[in-house]
Specification:
Largest interface: A-B, 69 and 69 residues
Radius of gyration of chain A: 17 Å
Oligomer: homodimer
Number of helices of chain A: 3
Distance between the termini of chain A: 34 Å
Strand order of the largest sheet of chain A: 2-1-6-5
Order of helices and strands of chain A: HEEHEEEEEEH
């Protein structure tokens, strides 16, 4: 339980944490590299994982594909040490700044999950918008690290 | 329409944009300041607003509270010029880098929506977790800028 959301002014300008969880009990989380400022991943937390993250200073998420709490790095070893947590104006999203050392955050093997950019400007054919790879080198080989774990990506 | 998501390897390692919209037709969006790297806001786009953003290079979101597409800045004048769009590994979230000049992104008046931090460590009383204000000065007075517009924050 957190402080009840009973007043918009309190939620926006007040001093108490009153996060809003969505209809599935989740709040979206932006995770950035505390050293470079790069965006590493976008995830979700439920109430338990948010509290666990605050108390342990290690990022814990809710895995929507595996339907369970997930201590980031529990399989890969790439833990995230939390340096700062921020909450937004209406308290329905969270931003973590984390230290991942020389590690990676992306299950595909890149440092950041956001390794591809979308070209800007007039769209000629929306079924063939070509992405540009901004990270070219993987930090690890996911086959070696995750072995027989199912891929969390869903179509 | 975008390229069909029919193959996990293509979604993760392929070169085509195949975003995944949730059951409400939305994809979450992280917006960061292209100059400072600071996180400015967390929002949502539908297919139309994502395409509009790509083509116009101005951020367009889906407002869940007003239930309509929303060109950021249409009321406040604080437009967001899009410098880069990235998509994540499983293509279910987007990150924009935007130029907001000397403006603001937060309807409460701060430059960033993430103006408060959550203290780390043992939680003594979960209904009274005290936030710390990291931005102390508002960039604008929301009463003057938004006048009679309804507040988008929902309890």
């Amino acid at each position: 339980m957190f402080k009840k959301r009973d007043n918009i002014r309190e939620v926006e300008e007040g001093k108490y944490l009153s996060p809003k969880f969505d209809e599935n009990g989740l709040i979206p989380v932006i995770t950035r590299d505390s050293k470079t400022g790069d965006i590493l991943m976008h995830g979700y937390m439920n109430e338990v994982s948010l509290k666990k993250t605050i108390e342990t200073k290690e990022a814990h998420y809710w895995s929507r594909s595996r339907k369970k709490m997930w201590r980031k790095g529990e399989i890969s070893g790439f833990f995230q040490k939390v340096k700062e947590i921020r909450i937004d104006d209406d308290q329905d999203s969270v931003c973590l700044s984390v230290d991942i050392g020389d590690g990676a955050s992306c299950h595909v093997g890149y440092r950041s999950c956001f390794y591809r950019s979308v070209p800007l400007g007039k769209i000629k054919n929306d079924t063939e918008i070509e992405l540009e790879f901004k990270e070219k080198k993987k930090i690890f080989d996911p086959k070696k690290v995750y072995k027989d774990e199912p891929n969390p990506t869903k179509l």
